[in-house]
User: Fold this.
Amino acid sequence: MPMFQPSKRDGFVVAGFDGSGDGQVLDLDTAVKDGVLGGVVGGEVIAAAVGEKLDLKKMIEELDIPEIPSVFICPISLEPMQDPVTLCTGQTYERSNILKWFNLGHYTCPTTMQELWDDSITPNRTLYHLIYTWFSQKYSLMKKRSEDVQGRVSEHLEALKKVKGQARIQALKELKQVVAAHAAARKTVVDEGGVSVISSLLGPFTSHAVGSEAIGILVNLELDSESKTNLMQPTTISLMVDMLNEGSVETRINCTRLMEKLMEEKEFRSESISSHRLLVGLMRLLKDKRHSNGILPGLSFLRSICLHKQVRSLIVSIGAVSQLVELLPALEPDCLELALFILDTLSALPEGKVALKDCANTIPNMVRLLMRVSESCTQYALSILWSVCKLAPEECSSVALEAGLAAKLLLVIQSGCNPVLKQRSAELLKLCSLNYTDTIFISKCKLTRTIQ
Amino acid sequence: MGLLCSKNRHYTEADAEENSQAAEIERRIEQETKAEKHIQKLLVLGAGESGKSTIFKQIKLLFQTGFDDAELRSYISVIHANIYQTIKILYDGSKEFAQNDADSSKYVLSSENKVIGEKLSEIGSQLDYPCLNRELAHEIETLWKDSAIQETYVRGNELQVPDCAHYFMENLQRLSDANYIPTKEDVLYARVRTTGVVEIQFSPVGKNKKSGEVYRLFDVGGQRNERRKWIHLFEGVTAVIFCAAISDYDQIEDEQKNRMMESKELFDWVLKQPCFEKTSFMLFLNKFDIFETKVLKVPLNVCEWFKDYQPVSTGKQEIEHAYEFVKKKFEELYFQSTAPDRVDRVFKIYRTTALDQKLVKKTFKLVDETLRRRNLFEAGLL
Assistant:
């Protein structure tokens, strides 16, 4: 019976394995490098670091390459072998797979269909070494490449200058990934003039696919003054507004954040943001029940917009006031402060006051928020209540008192808040009490469940 | 029993035949309804001369087989008619200005040209136009070049001189040639009032030739009468492409009405229609090429709707600024005319020049992308 002789020269491959007998002995690394087994692209060799015991299984998993040399693949599972064993027929399989085959009661060689005359399975150490070395080299190459962030960035930027269509979208996607993962990449993009390359892709005929990827990159970069000014052109803003209205939540958040960044420039003209479509799109982001991660960036942007007087009227006219009031109960503290600031700013306008008054939940929500979250929130809520009650004292006072306003105001007055707040509270208390007799009023001041 | 059987069989045979036919028809109806569902229907609306039919022609040129020889030839009489109509309008206009205008002398033609003018005006008022030959073309050209006519042309907005005037007048030699066959561009400029409903079906197949969406485009033309009665037939269209010629801001219609205002009213009316509750709206702000040159010479605030416009600079910047202003006005109008429950329908504005094939193609690519994304969104896949 032919016996399989284990190779005495472990780790060495004899070139001419199939019998042509060149006789030249190559070490494993060189063999793999020179592509004896194929599959090595570019021929770059990084010798596996001495002493670094990379786990084969881990490498196979992480690498996920489609072109693995066929001799490394187990004929049963079609996966690369991690523990290759050879049968008496000379065919090699993954140990666990062939054992399963035997356990099912088969005593044949799966590929040759021959009946086995010998049930021994011999570990194929040679093949194992080859597989290991091949994967190690690929792995080291991959690791090096992923560390060569700069190189990849340059590569993608060059590609962007030339390609169009699907290739362009692909290049942008990959650049976005690199930029998101490595801080060094961001700097490289800026240094190599990437900002203007990407900005130049944004025009009146930019498709959504390209635009969303480009914005996804730009929002993560440090943009200088000139770049920001460049991005403030009406067509670019218009494109961002479109994406704010139609994009995925990630795209919408990116547009929001980028536009907020642009607003920081002193050259910024409020006309750019004085747009129905922008504000309606922004409100839609805030109201999106499926994605709450848009609320904070959305409110932050809206706050910045509110600072421009000319736009406030427009914000009120699209019904933002009642929409914001409805949002309040579900907000986190940091969002609450922003939302209340916005509502307070809008309450300075006559139409803002009216909108606040007309919304049924304004007063109850504001009362609930007093002394609940933070001093700033209390300050804003108080200010809003003041605006509303001043506008229509009889109507609003009763609603407010029913909601437990009086007790809350007393809390403020007795608290350690700043004196201005206390003063305000006292004034508001007085305003509300005007329509009630003393006894009734005092009864309304009792601490109720509303507070607890 | 045999008798019974045979009776039944006779009955069932004829019946079976009918049943199978009916089943076949049913099956076919079901198939076609399924296929219909996948066809996206687009309705092109807009005021008269806003460029709807030009968009239509462009789509035909871009995504179908274009115009064959016979179709091209069919436009010859239209183009000649346009020329006669134009020169008549200009000549009659010059006479009117010469009579009524304070500065009348500049509208007075030379005596030879007056003769030509009278002749052409006479031709233009007939029902049938003669074929445009070399001689007539030459006479028209002479008249066109008269300074009085040129002066009149400057005030073309008051006379409803069609936009194709300049283009045709400059090409008279070619157009009057005995063997003239209209070019694609000539066809795009040709002006004929659309009657009834025109439709084409097409598929904007991309570069990678994957099977794309199938669209059916409807053009209802200038039908104004009883619009409210038939508009609901278009309920369920995927999108309305509304064309508004932004260069019309200084154009005065018959009853002294400004064309831009007419466009505004129409847009407002369309937005409020119940049948378009869920329809996407693509607003094409058309004739940008004319707008570009006009806005630097004629201020926007001659139009009532734009009376609060303030110019900020000159040249290209001013053009952009003016365009943004007009765009904002339409946006404002959209949101004013849209009930809160409809605010989520897709609304996008595109700057177009319907005569420019490349631009129309690019614009349409964007429209296609938007509609496809909308479909995915509604299917819950986005």
Observations:
- DSSP finds 15 helices and six strands in chain B.
